[in-house]
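Example S7 (structure tokens).
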């Protein structure tokens, strides 16, 4: 297959690498040309423009920061839709807006182009391993045609067709929203437990064995215990995703009080630690506020508290 790939960030460069490893003809583009050097050395071709990439591809994959960037590369006379041949397929794997996806989908349909929204879960390590979870929205026939390409980037057992165009973006926003709710809640639970004198390992084992268990408690807290707040996904993108999710709740006329509060907690963490800070810094926000740090130590999870820091 002739594949065009736009967006070579933390996730995209690994995803494009896996397409290349599957022996597909790959053309790439990014605002930062240096992001494509390694892929060009491995045999891919650099496109000088989005229009060139679209004209030379049967499938175009986009992996971009958000709906604004997706619209920029897809719309207009120099965009994907105007330059991709009828019968070709565009797969947007960005975490974006369902409504923007549907708007662009109407243009794609008028041009005879198949369009899918197929955002992913699994972080950069999943992108590198080629075992991402993928949530796909769009027509079944288009999905079936694109599935072999999706399987070069994702786990075949975890590629889900979740509904019509826009449904993939919806499921991904809901997934991210719930994960960040878990992060904020877990921060409060573990900081309270540690300050009450409960051993960290004991508390984690107890919660994992209980009905209150979550993937965040069972797996993601291990990074926190080592002082790693996961810089592979930037806080600016966290706040973008949470903003899209809260906006979706408003558009659906659903009260989202918990979600709105969690969004504000993460916006405060972004203000405190910067746009490029790691996605789990909402936990550090509470650690710094209370002077209580969730770290395993020689006495099995009872690190000394420090003075609280005003933020």
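Recovered sequence:
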């Amino acid at each position: 297959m002739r594949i065009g790939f736009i967006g070579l960030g933390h996730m995209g460069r690994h995803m494009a690498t896996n397409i290349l490893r599957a022996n597909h003809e790959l053309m790439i583009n990014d605002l930062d040309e240096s992001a494509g050097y390694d892929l060009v050395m491995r045999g891919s071709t650099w496109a000088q423009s989005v229009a060139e990439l679209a004209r030379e591809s049967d499938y175009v994959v986009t992996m971009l920061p958000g709906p604004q960037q997706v619209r920029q590369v897809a719309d207009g006379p120099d965009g994907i839709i105007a330059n991709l041949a009828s019968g070709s397929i565009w797969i947007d794997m960005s975490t974006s807006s369902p409504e923007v996806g549907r708007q662009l989908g109407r243009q794609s349909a008028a041009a005879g182009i198949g369009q899918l929204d197929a955002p992913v879960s699994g972080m950069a390590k999943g992108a590198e391993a080629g075992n991402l979870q993928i949530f796909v929205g769009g027509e079944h026939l288009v999905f079936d045609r694109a599935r072999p390409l999706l399987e070069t980037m994702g786990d075949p057992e975890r590629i889900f067709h979740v509904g019509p165009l826009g449904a993939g973006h919806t499921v991904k926003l809901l997934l991210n929203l719930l994960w960040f709710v878990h992060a904020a809640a877990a921060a409060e639970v573990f900081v309270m437990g540690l300050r009450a004198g409960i051993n960290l390992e004991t508390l984690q084992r107890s919660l994992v064995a209980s009905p209150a268990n979550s993937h965040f408690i069972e797996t993601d807290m291990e990074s926190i215990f080592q002082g790693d707040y996961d810089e592979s996904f930037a806080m600016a993108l966290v706040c973008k995703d949470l903003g899209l999710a809260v906006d979706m709740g408003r558009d659906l006329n659903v009260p989202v009080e918990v979600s709105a509060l969690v969004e504000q907690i993460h916006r405060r963490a972004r203000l405190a630690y910067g746009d490029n800070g790691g996605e789990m810094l909402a936990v550090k926000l509470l650690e710094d506020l209370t002077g209580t740090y969730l770290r395993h130590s020689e006495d099995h999870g009872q690190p000394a508290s420090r003075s609280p820091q005003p933020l």
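Notes on this example. The chain has two domains: 2-164, 170-290.
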